[in-house]
Amino acid sequence: MNGVLSRALRAKQKLDLIYVDSDGQVSQRVIRVLELREDEILAYCYTRRRVRTFKKANVLSLYPYQRRKRMEA
What count of other Cβ atoms lies within 10 Å of the Cβ of residue 40? Predict the structure, then answer.
């Protein structure tokens, strides 16, 4: 996970993050890493539209963001 985070920080790449918050709620976020700390990730969260801190221990999945195609009827 640290390798993905470090590469995303250097490349200013967006990431998809699946995360469990302190209440046990699972959420999916699109983030851009601003700073890596020992146990935390400081990132801009496109979902919440603000800077957020995420605990590394609560990350379930982390992968490069891929823009989703809209399905047409």
Answer: 14
Do the beta carbons of residue 69 and residue 38 sit within 8 Å? no
Rg of the chain's alpha carbons, rounded to an integer? 12
> 53: which strand partners?
42
The pLDDT tens digits for 21-42 are 889 999 999 999 999 999 999 9
Q: What is the pLDDT of residues 7-25, one digit of tens each?
A: 999 999 999 999 998 899 9
CA distances from 56 to 29, 35, 61 (A): 14, 12, 10
Q: Which two three-digit tokens encode residue 29?
A: 């976020």
Domains and CATH numbers, the chain: 2-64 (2.30.30.100)
